[in-house]
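Researcher: Go.
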Amino acid sequence: MADNDPPITVSPLSRMVSEDGITVRVEIFKLEADEGWTLEVINEAGTSTVWEDPFDSDASAFEAFKRAVEIEGIGTFLDDDGEGWTTIH
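Model: Structure:
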């Protein structure tokens, strides 16, 4: 069976980040045909936080993640209710 998923480019800036005993997976990626990069942060429970607007570069996406941690703390990515997706504008 043919694979119908579009090709995805994953940034080398994607990584696991740990702080204050909390570990999250930072995923930065784009469809090969698109110019904008998507930032997604996944916590240990599998809950995903996705920034709504694309970024011009993978570096600017990673900077947005670092700003969020600096301003709100890494705990902002923990589950409030144990499930679901969060979108950041």
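Model: Residues 8-81 form one domain.
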